[in-house]
Amino acid sequence: MMTATEFRSSLAVVSAASVDTRQTFRQLSLVSAVALALTAGGLASPAQAQTGGRWAEGRALVQFQAGLPQAEQDKILKAHGGKRLAKIQQVGVHIIEVPAKAEDAVVQALSHNPHVKFAEKDMLVEASLTPNDPNYSSAWHLPKIAAPTAWDTSSGSGVVVAILDTGVYAAHPEFSGRLVAGYNSADGTVNTADIYGHGTKVAGTAAAATNNGLGVAGVAGNALIMPVRVTNDSTTGSASFSSIASGLSWAADHGARVANISYDVTGSSSVASAAQYLRGKGGLTVVAAGNSSTNPGYADSPYIISVSATDSSDNKASWSNYGAYVDVAAPGVGIWTTTNGGGYGAVSGTSFSSPMTAGVVALMMAANPGLSPADVESALKSSADDLGTAGRDDVYGYGRVNAGRAVQAALTARSTDTQAPTVAMTAPVSSAKVKGLVAVGINASDNVGVERVELYVNGTKLASDSTAPFGFSWDTTQYAEGNVTLVAYAFDAAGNQGLSSAVSVTVDNVPDPVDATPPTVSISNPVNGAKVSGVNVTINVNASDNVAVTKTTCAVDGQVLSISSSASLKCSWNIKKVAAGAHSISATAEDAAGNKSSTAIQVTK
């Protein structure tokens, strides 16, 4: 262990900005169970995007609307040269193979399909009571967020904090007795050793032991640590959207109440779906805002707590990202924490602001285990120290976290949500005739949050959708012809239920009668056998059909002069340079069924 003098000397060197130069982990690797088809060939080579981002070449992520049959899913993928590789079952996200260099085109085309909820490239992102610990005096961030005040009430006992990162050094004395079973979502194994060193630093920031006479203190020193390794890349620590979404879903299924992701994933629909899944199980997802000193333009996610970074003077760290998606801020400059191999060191980056906030969330949950995720998030924001512009702003969000006030807010909060969600169907409309696959649009909202929406057809549940924006694909060919009633139910985490107005439609999958009758067509001017002269000859074509004429054509000597989509056509034939003699004027009419008829006359110049 370094001496106090060495410790302070090191701090002086790094506090200027040993920003994790690999940035807030903005790149990712591949998914686990997902690794089935992927481990054989290895991780696809990353490609450089026009925007500067990287993605797994030849791969994309897609989530279909709830209720869409698998056969129809395959048809949609096949039309764009795609095929499924794996599926993140908990959130219904498919990892698909697409033609190399066609990722953008395929994602764009799929995104416009009404039976696709979202499609995105599989982006790669790189790794963003006072205790008696010897280096606590250099841990400026802990008193800054009033952690000692919080520790008088809560130390995070019993709360499982999942660290989705490069792994965790399990033998570190700061984690002794508090590691729970983890997972490697990059290859589907249980190998969670830290292959890059970043994850151990993140874990220590959130939950290194306090008051144990050792090197540093984490925010939630008695919380349980769940290592979820999301990468097998020991060179860059990069990981994929799919690997992170898979790891987060696994953590949700295995007891995590808080998940920290020190990667820039706020813009991923797949990760947001997994975060919503964790929220539905009573957990919260905390994410680093990024270290590019830019506003990436992300929308605020209702399922993710994004954290920007501050320095010891409560100023924005020079490299911290900002924007409408930032929820809160936390210290991120010169943070002393645990390192791979059992040591200690100072680090900087939103990669460490994020787990600091995750630790505060763990303190709150331990103080009042009965609070819903929405209650905890609300208390976290309302208790933050407002910095910068009064109220919420894009730099600090709702403010820099204050652990002492947050724990007190959690203690006094009461979860009493009795308000039901509202839900309405936007498509199809009542009295509509429907056939084939029908996209059912849903608008659902709640004072806290909608957990899921269920669609019922004639009183029988068709499907459930747990990820916003809500919607369904309804295969009407599985229902008898005639009137059908659709109803949607929306549920929140408290069990409150909202009911939509019923929508009655008519299923009409009977094929239209085959139209075998061709149109009739005639040329009214000039007449057959006429002699033409002058410069221009006007040709009048008239057509009719038992249903409708969709196209009429006028031609002279086989050369088309004019085309119309109506039943009548008037065209002008310039005969000034036409050779003397006989010429053929023809007309053709076509209907929607493809039936055609033609007529022709002869004229002489």
TrEMBL record:
Residues 156-399 form the Peptidase S8/S53 domain. Signal peptide: none annotated. Residues 46-120 form the Fervidolysin-like N-terminal prodomain domain. InterPro entries: Fervidolysin-like_N_prodom, Ig-like_fold, Pep_S8_PrcA, Pep_S8A_subtilisin_pbac-2, Peptidase_S8/S53_dom, Peptidase_S8/S53_dom_sf, Peptidase_S8_Asp-AS, Peptidase_S8_His-AS. Keywords: Hydrolase, Protease, Serine protease. It comes from the Bacteria. GO terms for molecular function: serine-type endopeptidase activity. Pfam families: Big_7, Fervidolysin_NPro-like, Peptidase_S8. GO terms for biological process: proteolysis. The keyword Protease applies. CDD domains: Peptidases_S8_15. Gene3D superfamilies: Immunoglobulins (2.60.40.10), Peptidase S8/S53 domain (3.40.50.200). The active site is at D165, H198, S351. Belongs to the peptidase S8 family. This is Peptidase S8 and S53 subtilisin kexin sedolisin. It comes from Candidatus Contendobacter odensis Run_B_J11.
